[in-house]
Amino acid sequence: MGHIKGFIFDLDGTVYLSDHALPGAVETIAEIRARGLKCVFISNKPLEPGSAYAAKLTRLGIPATPEDVITSARVLLAYFQRHAPDARIFVIGEPPLWEEMRAARLRLTEDPAQIEYVVAAFDRTFDYRKWNIAFQAIKFHGAHFVATNADKSCPVDGGEIPDCAGIIAALEATTGRQVEFVAGKPSPLIIQTGVEQMGVRVEECLVVGDRLETDMVMGRAAGARTALVLTGVTKREHLAHAAAQPDYVLENIGEIQRVILGNQ
Ligand SMILES: [Mg+2]
Hints:
Elements: E1 6-10, E2 16-17, E3 20-21, H1 25-34, E4 38-43, H2 50-59, E5 69-71, H3 72-83, E6 88-92, H4 95-103, E7 107-108, E8 117-120, H5 128-140, E9 144-147, E10 153-156, E11 159-162, H6 164-175, E12 181-182, H7 188-198, E13 205-209, H8 212-222, E14 225-229, E15 248-250, H9 256-259
Parallel strand pairs: 1-4, 1-13, 4-5, 6-7, 6-8, 8-9, 9-12, 13-14, 14-15
Antiparallel strand pairs: 2-3, 10-11
The protein binds magnesium ion.
Protein backbone atom coordinates (compact mmCIF):
# COMPACT_ATOMS: atom_id res chain seq x y z
CA MET A 1 0.00 0.00 0.00
CA GLY A 2 1.24 3.49 -0.79
CA HIS A 3 2.06 6.12 1.76
CA ILE A 4 -0.67 8.05 3.50
CA LYS A 5 -0.62 11.77 2.70
CA GLY A 6 -3.85 12.98 4.28
CA PHE A 7 -5.45 12.24 7.65
CA ILE A 8 -9.16 12.79 8.31
CA PHE A 9 -9.77 12.82 12.04
CA ASP A 10 -13.08 12.44 13.81
CA LEU A 11 -13.07 14.61 16.95
CA ASP A 12 -15.18 13.22 19.83
CA GLY A 13 -13.74 9.93 21.06
CA THR A 14 -10.80 10.14 18.65
CA VAL A 15 -8.88 13.39 19.22
CA TYR A 16 -10.54 14.40 22.48
CA LEU A 17 -13.15 13.28 24.98
CA SER A 18 -15.11 16.02 26.76
CA ASP A 19 -12.37 18.48 27.64
CA HIS A 20 -9.25 16.34 27.41
CA ALA A 21 -7.01 15.48 24.49
CA LEU A 22 -6.78 11.69 24.16
CA PRO A 23 -3.38 9.98 24.70
CA GLY A 24 -0.90 10.86 21.96
CA ALA A 25 -3.23 13.25 20.10
CA VAL A 26 -1.08 16.36 20.51
CA GLU A 27 2.18 14.60 19.56
CA THR A 28 0.70 12.65 16.66
CA ILE A 29 -0.84 15.66 14.95
CA ALA A 30 2.34 17.68 15.50
CA GLU A 31 4.35 14.84 13.89
CA ILE A 32 1.99 14.61 10.91
CA ARG A 33 2.37 18.33 10.27
CA ALA A 34 6.14 18.27 10.85
CA ARG A 35 6.39 15.70 8.06
CA GLY A 36 4.47 17.95 5.69
CA LEU A 37 1.47 15.62 5.62
CA LYS A 38 -2.09 17.01 5.68
CA CYS A 39 -4.89 16.65 8.17
CA VAL A 40 -8.44 17.87 8.68
CA PHE A 41 -10.94 17.34 11.46
CA ILE A 42 -14.56 16.40 10.84
CA SER A 43 -17.60 16.67 13.08
CA ASN A 44 -21.24 15.82 12.50
CA LYS A 45 -22.35 18.30 15.14
CA PRO A 46 -23.94 21.40 13.62
CA LEU A 47 -24.34 23.14 16.97
CA GLU A 48 -21.29 25.36 16.77
CA PRO A 49 -19.31 26.84 13.88
CA GLY A 50 -15.93 25.40 12.90
CA SER A 51 -14.24 28.28 14.71
CA ALA A 52 -15.51 26.96 18.06
CA TYR A 53 -13.99 23.52 17.42
CA ALA A 54 -10.77 25.12 16.19
CA ALA A 55 -10.57 27.16 19.41
CA LYS A 56 -11.09 24.03 21.50
CA LEU A 57 -8.41 22.09 19.60
CA THR A 58 -5.99 24.98 19.97
CA ARG A 59 -6.70 25.18 23.70
CA LEU A 60 -5.97 21.44 24.03
CA GLY A 61 -2.56 21.89 22.38
CA ILE A 62 -3.50 21.16 18.75
CA PRO A 63 -3.32 24.48 16.87
CA ALA A 64 -6.20 24.63 14.36
CA THR A 65 -7.90 27.21 12.16
CA PRO A 66 -11.65 27.23 11.33
CA GLU A 67 -10.72 25.91 7.86
CA ASP A 68 -9.14 22.83 9.45
CA VAL A 69 -12.53 21.77 10.88
CA ILE A 70 -15.22 20.47 8.55
CA THR A 71 -18.64 20.28 10.21
CA SER A 72 -21.83 18.88 8.69
CA ALA A 73 -23.17 22.46 8.66
CA ARG A 74 -20.22 23.69 6.61
CA VAL A 75 -20.72 20.87 4.08
CA LEU A 76 -24.36 21.86 3.72
CA LEU A 77 -23.48 25.54 3.36
CA ALA A 78 -20.98 24.69 0.63
CA TYR A 79 -23.65 22.62 -1.11
CA PHE A 80 -26.08 25.55 -1.15
CA GLN A 81 -23.43 28.01 -2.27
CA ARG A 82 -22.50 25.75 -5.16
CA HIS A 83 -25.90 24.40 -6.25
CA ALA A 84 -28.62 26.72 -4.93
CA PRO A 85 -27.13 30.05 -3.84
CA ASP A 86 -30.41 31.93 -4.16
CA ALA A 87 -32.71 29.30 -2.67
CA ARG A 88 -35.00 30.26 0.19
CA ILE A 89 -34.24 28.02 3.13
CA PHE A 90 -35.96 27.12 6.39
CA VAL A 91 -33.67 25.72 9.07
CA ILE A 92 -34.77 23.59 12.01
CA GLY A 93 -31.64 24.35 13.98
CA GLU A 94 -30.13 26.47 16.71
CA PRO A 95 -29.21 30.15 16.38
CA PRO A 96 -25.47 29.62 15.63
CA LEU A 97 -26.47 27.65 12.53
CA TRP A 98 -28.80 30.43 11.32
CA GLU A 99 -25.97 32.89 11.87
CA GLU A 100 -23.57 30.78 9.83
CA MET A 101 -26.11 30.58 7.01
CA ARG A 102 -26.82 34.30 7.09
CA ALA A 103 -23.09 35.02 7.11
CA ALA A 104 -22.82 32.84 3.99
CA ARG A 105 -25.46 35.12 2.39
CA LEU A 106 -28.06 32.35 2.18
CA ARG A 107 -31.70 33.43 2.31
CA LEU A 108 -33.74 32.20 5.27
CA THR A 109 -37.53 32.30 5.48
CA GLU A 110 -40.32 30.91 7.67
CA ASP A 111 -43.05 31.24 5.02
CA PRO A 112 -43.97 27.69 3.88
CA ALA A 113 -45.05 28.92 0.43
CA GLN A 114 -41.62 30.51 -0.11
CA ILE A 115 -39.45 27.73 1.30
CA GLU A 116 -37.46 25.80 -1.34
CA TYR A 117 -35.29 23.78 1.07
CA VAL A 118 -36.03 22.53 4.57
CA VAL A 119 -32.87 21.80 6.55
CA ALA A 120 -33.27 19.45 9.50
CA ALA A 121 -30.41 19.89 11.98
CA PHE A 122 -29.66 18.88 15.55
CA ASP A 123 -31.94 21.31 17.41
CA ARG A 124 -32.41 21.30 21.18
CA THR A 125 -35.13 23.94 20.74
CA PHE A 126 -37.21 21.89 18.25
CA ASP A 127 -40.92 22.60 18.75
CA TYR A 128 -44.32 22.17 17.09
CA ARG A 129 -44.16 25.56 15.35
CA LYS A 130 -40.94 24.66 13.50
CA TRP A 131 -42.24 21.16 12.77
CA ASN A 132 -45.40 22.55 11.22
CA ILE A 133 -43.60 25.13 9.05
CA ALA A 134 -41.37 22.37 7.68
CA PHE A 135 -44.33 20.02 7.27
CA GLN A 136 -46.35 22.58 5.27
CA ALA A 137 -43.38 23.41 3.04
CA ILE A 138 -42.46 19.78 2.32
CA LYS A 139 -45.96 18.33 2.01
CA PHE A 140 -47.82 21.14 0.24
CA HIS A 141 -45.23 23.38 -1.43
CA GLY A 142 -42.74 20.88 -2.85
CA ALA A 143 -39.77 21.97 -0.75
CA HIS A 144 -36.60 19.87 -0.84
CA PHE A 145 -35.83 18.10 2.44
CA VAL A 146 -32.18 17.76 3.53
CA ALA A 147 -30.36 17.30 6.83
CA THR A 148 -27.07 18.12 8.51
CA ASN A 149 -26.59 14.74 10.17
CA ALA A 150 -28.45 11.52 10.89
CA ASP A 151 -27.10 10.61 14.33
CA LYS A 152 -29.67 9.00 16.62
CA SER A 153 -28.11 10.41 19.76
CA CYS A 154 -25.31 12.67 20.88
CA PRO A 155 -22.96 11.66 23.69
CA VAL A 156 -22.80 14.17 26.52
CA ASP A 157 -21.25 14.07 29.97
CA GLY A 158 -23.11 11.37 31.87
CA GLY A 159 -25.11 9.93 28.96
CA GLU A 160 -26.75 10.76 25.62
CA ILE A 161 -29.39 13.15 24.28
CA PRO A 162 -31.60 12.75 21.15
CA ASP A 163 -30.03 14.03 17.93
CA CYS A 164 -31.09 14.89 14.38
CA ALA A 165 -32.35 11.40 13.42
CA GLY A 166 -35.44 12.09 15.52
CA ILE A 167 -36.17 15.35 13.72
CA ILE A 168 -35.72 13.69 10.32
CA ALA A 169 -38.03 10.87 11.47
CA ALA A 170 -40.70 13.34 12.65
CA LEU A 171 -40.78 14.97 9.21
CA GLU A 172 -40.60 11.68 7.29
CA ALA A 173 -43.39 10.12 9.33
CA THR A 174 -45.73 13.07 8.94
CA THR A 175 -45.04 14.18 5.35
CA GLY A 176 -44.52 10.75 3.79
CA ARG A 177 -41.36 12.10 2.12
CA GLN A 178 -37.83 10.80 2.67
CA VAL A 179 -34.87 13.03 3.44
CA GLU A 180 -33.07 13.65 0.11
CA PHE A 181 -29.53 13.81 1.44
CA VAL A 182 -27.60 14.12 4.66
CA ALA A 183 -24.42 16.23 4.74
CA GLY A 184 -22.63 14.63 7.70
CA LYS A 185 -20.98 11.26 8.19
CA PRO A 186 -21.39 8.67 6.70
CA SER A 187 -22.34 10.77 3.65
CA PRO A 188 -19.61 10.96 0.99
CA LEU A 189 -20.07 14.75 0.89
CA ILE A 190 -18.16 15.40 4.11
CA ILE A 191 -15.21 13.22 3.13
CA GLN A 192 -15.09 14.81 -0.35
CA THR A 193 -14.91 18.23 1.27
CA GLY A 194 -11.95 17.12 3.39
CA VAL A 195 -10.11 15.46 0.52
CA GLU A 196 -10.54 18.50 -1.74
CA GLN A 197 -9.30 20.81 0.97
CA MET A 198 -6.17 18.73 1.59
CA GLY A 199 -5.45 18.45 -2.13
CA VAL A 200 -4.72 14.73 -1.99
CA ARG A 201 -6.37 11.69 -3.58
CA VAL A 202 -8.88 9.80 -1.47
CA GLU A 203 -6.82 6.58 -1.81
CA GLU A 204 -3.98 8.42 -0.06
CA CYS A 205 -6.16 9.27 2.95
CA LEU A 206 -6.64 7.57 6.29
CA VAL A 207 -9.96 8.11 8.06
CA VAL A 208 -9.43 7.84 11.83
CA GLY A 209 -12.50 7.51 14.03
CA ASP A 210 -14.19 5.69 16.89
CA ARG A 211 -17.47 4.67 15.22
CA LEU A 212 -17.79 1.67 12.91
CA GLU A 213 -21.16 2.68 11.43
CA THR A 214 -20.16 6.23 10.50
CA ASP A 215 -16.40 6.84 10.42
CA MET A 216 -15.33 3.42 9.16
CA VAL A 217 -18.27 2.85 6.77
CA MET A 218 -17.75 6.30 5.25
CA GLY A 219 -13.99 5.91 4.82
CA ARG A 220 -14.30 2.53 3.18
CA ALA A 221 -17.14 3.57 0.86
CA ALA A 222 -15.13 6.58 -0.31
CA GLY A 223 -12.07 4.46 -1.07
CA ALA A 224 -9.89 5.72 1.79
CA ARG A 225 -8.06 3.56 4.30
CA THR A 226 -9.56 3.33 7.77
CA ALA A 227 -8.25 3.23 11.34
CA LEU A 228 -10.53 2.53 14.26
CA VAL A 229 -9.46 3.90 17.64
CA LEU A 230 -10.72 2.22 20.82
CA THR A 231 -10.94 5.42 22.88
CA GLY A 232 -14.59 6.16 22.00
CA VAL A 233 -17.80 4.21 21.58
CA THR A 234 -16.40 1.05 19.94
CA LYS A 235 -14.78 -1.69 22.01
CA ARG A 236 -12.68 -4.53 20.63
CA GLU A 237 -15.52 -7.06 21.14
CA HIS A 238 -17.83 -5.07 18.81
CA LEU A 239 -15.45 -5.74 15.93
CA ALA A 240 -16.46 -9.38 15.66
CA HIS A 241 -19.93 -8.32 14.45
CA ALA A 242 -18.81 -5.53 12.12
CA ALA A 243 -19.82 -5.89 8.47
CA ALA A 244 -16.63 -4.20 7.31
CA GLN A 245 -13.35 -4.47 9.20
CA PRO A 246 -11.14 -1.37 9.45
CA ASP A 247 -7.65 -1.56 7.95
CA TYR A 248 -6.11 -0.74 11.35
CA VAL A 249 -7.36 -1.09 14.92
CA LEU A 250 -5.49 1.20 17.31
CA GLU A 251 -5.70 1.54 21.08
CA ASN A 252 -5.58 5.30 20.61
CA ILE A 253 -4.64 8.02 18.14
CA GLY A 254 -1.09 8.02 19.54
CA GLU A 255 -0.44 4.61 17.94
CA ILE A 256 -0.52 6.28 14.52
CA GLN A 257 3.08 7.33 15.13
CA ARG A 258 4.33 3.75 15.49
CA VAL A 259 1.90 1.86 13.24
CA ILE A 260 1.49 4.29 10.34
CA LEU A 261 4.18 6.97 10.42
CA GLY A 262 6.85 4.53 11.64
CA ASN A 263 6.37 2.45 8.48
CA GLN A 264 6.45 5.13 5.82
MG1 LIG B 1 -16.42 10.11 17.38
